[in-house]
Amino acid sequence: MADHDVTTTTNGNGYSEESIKVLEGLEAVRKRPAMYIGDIGTRGLHHLVYEVVDNSIDEALAGRCDTISVTIHKDNSITVSDNGSGIPVGMHPTQKISTLQVVMTILHAGGKFDKDAYKVSGGLHGVGVSVVNALSEHMISTIKRDGKMYQQEYRQGIPQGDVIEIGTSAKKETGTTQWFRPDSSIFKNTEYRWDTLAERMRELAFLNPTVTITMSDEREDGITEVFHYKDGLVGFVKYIDSTRTAMIKPVMIAGEKENTPVEICFQYNSGYSENVFSYVNDINTHEGGTHVSGFRSALTRTLNAYAQKNKLLKNEKLTLTGEDFREGLTAVISVKVAEPQFEGQTKTKLGNSEVDGIVRSIFGDVLTQYLEENPKVGKAIIDKVFSAAEAREAARKSRELVRRKNAMETMTLPGKLADCSIEDPEHCEIYLVEGDSAGGSAKSARDRRTQAILPLRGKVLNVQKARINKVLENEEIRAIFTALGVGFGETLDVSKARYGKVILMADADVDGAHIRTLLLTLFFNYMREMIEQGKIYLAMPPLYKVKKGKADYYAYDDAERDEILKRLRKDTGAAAQVEEEGEKPEYEEVGRTRDGIVISRFKGLGEMNPEQLWATTMNPETRTLQQVTIENAQHASHIFETLMGDSVEPRRQFIERTARYIRNLDV
């Protein structure tokens, strides 16, 4: 298998035959890893595990596997083991090498492309385990099959010998074990996060109720957790809504049409947001697609027809919309498609047009029958829908005030907004700043051409607990909607954004963290696509200023502060003296050390003068920004509801469970 990398020479001829470089085997993967796994950061690192586990899940979908184990070892290497049929090891008919070696070293090779082997399969891009092999400094495949055990070892994707027989196994004992250590020369960070992997394993266990996934961490925490959910999507919906008050029990609907199995579970809660999570062959299609559109249209049509037939319409003048039927709705949609076609910005949007009709038909027919058999549930749903419709009507006038106008209309921007002079959004950014004092400093510090400042007074409304009409009555939120110009909810259009970056800037303390969380809750509920397109950032103001003589140094945490002190003392020879005497360097949190070094801790952004704020937090050349991403939408939704919802007990449990990871709460 070969890939091509085009380069342009610098000689007189420029682009020539010699410019075409042919990358053999897995060399293309190592040359351009982001093309195959998305990036070489944390997301790409964890994607390696997902690719290997997806192979085991494919065996489960084919009915040949019910047990999978994932282990994080002390050196951050990974072992994934299953009791599937085991990768074949015999001679491949066309490649003339072991089939195991074909699977492990050739791109787009595997049983997923043979519908006799796998009716459906996961793995978003079909790149599979060969890419994991290419991006691992060391990998070992162990196969149990036909009463024997086989093994092959690889270094950076290159076999270190043939497939060898290493022992025997029980005749009925089969399976595949993959051990790999990610290549530290490719990945910036090779440390795996337990929570990130655990959420994906939990998700897969919900989607595949016949499978038991055991995950272990051999590092200092020594955690082991078993994921197995016999109730499948019903358990999934209960988990997502565990911090919300359910209004009905989960409704499970399943069917198959045109060889496309469909499973949908939904329930309504007392909240105001819609939480719909969709999957195709266990792939999280967070951009939706035809299966989601089929579900939504069937839900609206079926419930509307039921309300009319049973004379449940309280107000004939009030027209119900799809938005009304989805307030407080939590749903999980899972379809299995033999030949899925993905589209969208991140290739996670299902494009198969036939799936829309299949989902509409199955869901609509079964839901109609369910409502006829459960009239109390039907009435509870319609009551909830009418409550949503009345709130929507009450919010209509407020919505018009903040909806973005087209180019022929005018809209008054918030009076406290200090806008930038350049109009090209890609070169503009807006700071949402906590407090008038900090806002004043930021206005003085900014680059007026490209940086806009919107000061926010106090803490914005917690939208997790409020309906849209209450949200739109909040002055600070209206100012944000108006300034950004993208609309919100169903009117959201990110292409109309007035700024390429939205930067949340708050104090580096508990109150500041709360304000950032409130703002992120707003974006997650009403402008989620802004996060998904990578337009939301967190400013990272420093905690300390270390001054020696006329030189100022800024530290963003305790470790960086200590490193600066160590370096300054070393320059003066004080560090050597301290080490020789075996003493711990002494300093005060705020004040002068014995070496004439002055340490100041910033209590808030308002304490910084404009020059300091520019140098540390706003200058694109020197600042640090943290981009906000959503790796797992259903997990993010669960966390937001835990932290910002009405239920106190889940929040208390979350704090108790995670408190041990806190290093610097506040000073």
Tell me the name of the CATH class of the largest domain. Alpha Beta
Largest sheet: 9 strands, mixed
CA-atom Rg in angstroms: 28 Å
Q: pLDDT average, as an integer?
A: 82
How many helices? Answer: 21
Number of domains: 4
DSSP strand count: 27
Estimated helix fraction:
25-40%
CATH architecture of the largest domain: 2-Layer Sandwich
* CATH homologous superfamily title of the largest domain: Histidine kinase-like ATPase, C-terminal domain
- SS-based structural class? alpha+beta
Instruction: Determine the N-to-C terminus distance.
Output: 58 Å
Fill in the keyword field for this structure.
667 residues, alpha+beta, Heat Shock Protein 90, Ribosomal Protein S5, domain 2, Rossmann fold, 4 domains, nine-stranded mixed sheet, five-stranded mixed sheet, disordered N terminus
